[in-house]
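Journal club prep — side note

Before the paper discussion, L.F. wants everyone to see what a predicted structure for a comparable chain looks like in token form. Sequence:
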Amino acid sequence: MSEYEIQRFTRQCAASGRELAPGEEFYSVLTVDGAELVRRDYAKAAWPGPPEGAIGWWKSQVPGPDAKRLHWAPNEVMLQFFEQLEQQPGREDVRYVLTLLLLRRRVLRMEREDRDAEGRQVLVVYCPRRETSYQVLVAVPEETRIQQIQDELAQLLFAHAT
């Protein structure tokens, strides 16, 4: 079983090296390099698309200097939503993105990658809190779904600080 430390947002484009400006859209991608999980951030104009074998990627926007700090929902709430998604056909991409988030927050731990009965790639993750393993279909969202998923998760799992 591997545990990864994921690098935080650097505010710098991996392709050009220039600093990303507040409000600017950018893409982030997670890849495996040997035994390390590597995050790279790209300006929208420099985004080459996700590389072969990418674990996940997403589009975001550089927060402005006056942006309010966001707070995560409690881990228990996130886990409950994660478990509910398993029973909702057609929402595999949302569950996959939430799984990546829960891995990053160390609520879930990666056990291994596997294939299901239909030959599709799945992640086998473990939740120490629930002492349970889960199989999660690797369902990278279509380009048209990315913003919808981001908005849904932000609405459900974040609250602005007051």
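L.F.'s comment for the group: The chain has two domains: 1-66, 70-160. Keep this in mind when we get to the figures.
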